[in-house]
Structure formats: structure tokens, C-alpha cells
Automatic annotation (TrEMBL):
Membrane-crossing segments per the record: 24-46, 58-76, 142-158, 164-185, 248-267, 279-301
SUPFAM superfamilies noted in UniProt: ABC transporter transmembrane region, P-loop containing nucleoside triphosphate hydrolases
Localisation: Cell membrane
Protein name: ATP-binding cassette domain-containing protein
Short name of any one Pfam family annotated for the protein: ABC_tran
Keyword Membrane: yes
Cellular component terms per the entry's GO annotation: plasma membrane
Keyword Coiled coil in record: no
SMART domains assigned: AAA
All copies of domain ABC transporter, residue ranges: 351-580
Keywords of the record: ATP-binding, Membrane, Nucleotide-binding, Transmembrane, Transmembrane helix
InterPro entries: AAA+_ATPase, ABC1_TM_dom, ABC1_TM_sf, ABC_transporter-like_ATP-bd, ABC_transporter-like_CS, P-loop_NTPase, Type_1_exporter
Positions of the ABC transmembrane type-1 domain: 37-305
Amino acid sequence: MGGEKLGRSVFGRLVAVLRGSTRAYWALTGLWMLLRVGTLSVGLLFQWFFDELGAEGGVWAIIALVAAVEAARLFLQFGVMINRLEPRVQYGTTTRLRSALLGTALSEPGATSRTVPGESLRTVGEDVEETGFFVAWAPTNLAHWLFVAVAITVMMRIDVTVTAALLSLLFLLALVTAVAHSRFLRHRRETRAASGRVAGALREMFGAVGAVRAATAETRVSAHVARLNAARARAAVREELYAVVQRTVIGNAAPIGIGLLLLLIAGRMGEGTFGVGDLALFAFYLLVLTEALGSMGMLSVRLQRVSVALGRIAGFLGGRLRPPPSHPVPAPRGRGGSEPDRKATASPRRLSVHGLTYHHPGTHRGVEDVDLLMESGTVTVITGRVGSGKTTLLRAVLGLLPPERGEVLWNGRPISDPASSPTAPRLGYTPQVPRLFSGTLRENILLGRDDATFDEAVRLAVLEPDLAAMPDGPDTVVGPRGLRLSGGQIQRVAIARMLAGRPELLVMDDVSSALDTSTERSLWDGLLNGTATVLAVSHRPALLRAADRVVVLDAGRVEALGTYEEVMAVSAEMARLHAATDPPSGARMVEESG
Ligand SMILES: Nc1ncnc2c1ncn2[C@@H]1O[C@H](COP(=O)(O)OP(=O)(O)OP(=O)(O)O)[C@@H](O)[C@H]1O
């Protein structure tokens, strides 16, 4: 497994994710420092200017100097930093992270199972944004520390007591800002979650209008949505409250500070120990100090957030930041056009599974100690009751779930990275619930491959009659934004997609559950032609009888293994399953296959 280690500390991880934008980052940090030095010098120029006001000459020169420093600052800040360097650091980092996450998800599909379900999208979205924002914001913060240190030293040298009093006030205000900021963030998260619940309820309600009306549940469902909406409104008000507190404190910190300053220095000015120039310098530094202390107050909150975000990113990436692939990401076998061209070989090919064990995180459910042997050209069918672990087994064999124990071997050699190992067979996988994209049928089947295999895939998936009946044939737009296909059509489009990659090993999860008998028979007639190796989950007697080997799973373990007749003779679980099958349809399938 290549790639740079992400480390454990938040700083180590930040350094790792910044690789590639390091020069831009340091240039940005250096320029922010320079800018703050400029701000410090403007304060000193103001002091000089007001001290010189009564004196002859020099005033215009100071005004010219201030104008020059400010012009240079504006050019640097807007022309170079905000327009060029900040986007480079921020979007360079987010792009690199997203490429790494996407590359990991595609080349090592078990990655998504390392995070809590549903969290992967949040990692790719919010966590990456948080990290990108932090690395672009950190240089401003660093420069603020420099400004604060130097400004306090300069002010202390003028008057220790006044400076200490002003700083106490500012630290108090910074503390209030930090607390308000952290509450604001918490309530913003709550508002977002509440908005998600409202949107989800509305989506479900629109999707189930018929069911709601049939149950005459309109009033209750509307009341439920109204309750969710009220909760969202409460969360939004709290979020806005803390946003306003934050804005008010930051906006008024400088005027309050200047008020205190005037109170403190009134006597001193009369005594002549505090000059007009000193007042100008203090007032100017106070303005910048309030901004700086506000930003410094946010550092701990932002550090906490970015550390959590980086923790999730590191978890997804398995602790390593892989460089984005310089070649197209290897597609899961049977799905892309860039599969390595594995030579057909006359030597026997076999896929074997030894002691494969996987449990879903935090549960005892999964598969335990599974041994399997599949010679090339043979058909293996896994069967078992609902929840017995059939899908889990397929996914673990495919490497979509990282095994706890055991291994998968191809011709006796372990396949460590099933997605890209050149020694692994070219796999095609059709899941139990296939997903189609918004696009044409052709695009859904080819997924970017050239269309050399299209006709054959469509024929074998028994899709030809369906395409002939569609207005635009293979160019009919389907998926969420197109024609709605039936369950059986979706299954066959997914099978055609799998076949278009010319896989050597076909892995199918209950793919014929929505097919009528004759379509199913045509499908298996085409697929079980003796050349492809098939590993399928099914309850259908026709397929079970056609299989070279039937694997009966019970609570994640292999309960029986053998031909259909053999397992029927020895397996109590198989007998139960058979008895549960609808007798007329079971009998019909058996007859048809005979
Ligand atoms: N992501 C998950 N997290 C926790 N438990 C899971 C998860 N997926 C499946 N399970 C549990 O693992 C067990 C095996 O599930 P699996 O989907 O492999 O069964 P199956 O035999 O394929 O079921 P079906 O016939 O319904 O497809 C079940 O008890 C299921 O509830």
C-alpha cells in the first residue's frame, strides 16, 4: 500500500495534506506576516504624524509614507494573496484530498466500511471543506500572533498600566467571542441536521403520497412534518442569536476599548506623560488587536474541528494519503475500459477462499470461517435464509469488505488488492440492488468503455426485446431523471453492464429475483455456457440444480456444500428452505430445468 503516512497528530496530518501546496502556503504565511509588519509600521507612522503635527515640515512626507504602505498592502492582499495564493492553498488541498478519497474508494472499496455508514459523503464533503478552509485561514492567524506580540511590546514601552488594562478588556471580549462562536457552530450543525430531517420527511412523504392517502394519514403526516419544521425553526433562531452576539462583540470591541483608553489617559495627557501621537498609535493598534484577538480566540475551536475532520479523513484513507493516480483510477474489474489485458491461459484457473471471516462493525453478524473452491468454468450458488450472510460473503470475496481473517487466492496466490491486482481474475459484479445513473441505457451499460462488447452484453442479459420496445432504443434516457425501468429491467441492465467488461468471474447477488420464468431461463442459458466462472446468490431451484456446487449458509457459516442433490440429502437448512419455497413455482422451475 503506497502513499504518505498521515500520522496521528493534527499538525502531522496538516503537514501531510499540505504537501503539493507547501510553497504557496509559506508564501501566503510570509506575505501575511509582511502585511502585519506594514500594519505595525502604519501605527508608528500615525504616532509620528501626530507628534509632528505641531512642528514644521515632515507631515506630508509621513502622509506619503502611509499612503505608500497602504497601497502596497492593498495590492498584496487583494492582488496576490486573496486572488491567487489563498485559492491555491485552499482548493489545492481540497482537490488533493478528494482525489485521494475517491481513489481510495474506487481502488480499495472496503474503505467505505471503515467509516460509520453514511459518513463517507460527509467526509468527502464537509470534512474536506473544513480542512481546506483551515489551511487557507491558518496563515492569517499566524500573522495575527506576530502582530499581537509586537504591538503589545510597543504599547508596553509607552505605558504598561494602560496597555495591561486594555488587554484585560480585549481578552475578556475574545473569550466571549470564542464561546459565542463555538455555540454558533453547534447550533449551525443542529440547524443543518434539522433541515435534513425536514427535507427527508418531505421526500418520503412525496414518495409515498398514495400510501399516506390510503391510510388516511394526511393529518398525522402533516403534523409530523410541522413538528420537524418547528424544531428546525428553534435551532435556526439559536444559531442566529449566537451569530449576532458574536458580531456585536467583535463590532463593538474597538469603540469600547477606545472609551476605556480615553478614560485611562485623560489624567496622563494633562501631565504630559501620554502624547497625542501615543493616543493615535494606541487607537490604531486597538482596532487591529480586536480583530486579531477575535481570530486567535477562534483558533482552538477551529483546531478542534479540523482535528476531528482530519481524523475521519485519515480513517477513510486507512492512515495514508495516497497521491492522486497519474493514470485513470483502476475500475473494479468488469466495470471499466482500462482493465489490464490478462492473457487467456490454458492452465487451470481456480479461486479459493480460506477461513474467510468478516463481522459488520459492532455486531456479531457476518460470515465465519468460510472455505470455498471455484474451478474455472464452474457454477457455484450460495443459498440460505434471509440474513444468513450471503451478500456479506460475496462482498468479502470481492474485497468490498476487508476480511478479519482468512484470504482469497487466485491460482494459489493471495489477492491482496482485489481491485487492481493483475494476478486476480477479471471480475464482474451485479449487486442485489443495482443503481443506475441518469443517462442513456448505452452509457449505463458501457460506463465509458468502447461499445465493442455492447451488443453481446445486451443479448446475454436478455435486454434486446426491451430495447426494441423503447422509443430511442439504447439511447433512451433512464435513471432518476429518465424513464423509470421495472425492477427486472434494472437487474438486466446491471447484468449487461457487468458483461460489457468481459469478466472471467461473474459474481451475482440474487439478480433474477424480479424476472419472469422464461426471461430467467434465457438469462441462465446464455450465462451458464461453460466458459465463465459463476458465483451467484439465489434461491431459484433451476439455478440450484444447474450449479456444480451449492453452498448453504446458516448464520454466517457454511452448513452444507455439494451438488443440489447432495445438499438436499444432508442439509436440514436446505430442507427448510425448500419447504418454504412456493411448491407450485418450485415444482415448475425444477420441471423447466430438467
Ligand atoms: N452494514 C451492516 N451493518 C450491520 N449489520 C449488517 C450490515 N449488513 C448486513 N448486516 C447483518 O449481517 C447479517 C447478514 O446480512 P446479509 O445481507 O449478508 O444477509 P443475506 O443472507 O444476504 O440476506 P438477504 O437474503 O436478505 O439478502 C444480517 O443479520 C444483517 O442484518
